Here is the input.
Amino acid sequence: MKTKFCSLFIVHCSLSCLLFGVFSQALAQEEFIYDSMGRRDPLIPLLDQKSPTGLRAGFSPPRKRVRLPMELKIKGILWNGREYFAIINEKVMKKGEALGEVKIKEIEQDRVIVEYTQREFTVFLREEKEK
Here is the structure.
């Protein structure tokens, strides 16, 4: 019984040392940097008692989600050797033109970048499946 206990104790100590070594090595690596991907870091508080407004300096409330006022369907993109044209909602459009409040900022091979309410949106050309 005593030898069984000693054997278990030795195994337990060995595993503990091994785990400690693994975890201490992982902790010794470079500091983890949170990638917010443009969103607010949830670990940074929004409020600051020292601030006159009560909000943390540099904090701006999240912007409202904006949608385009109309559906944009790109039927095709054309190239004449100098510039691109896009067939959007059955109209041939070029850079700088507008569809209502939506302005065309850029036309590329497979996408159109538009601006609406001072925000940019990318609309991709999708090839329709043959019926």
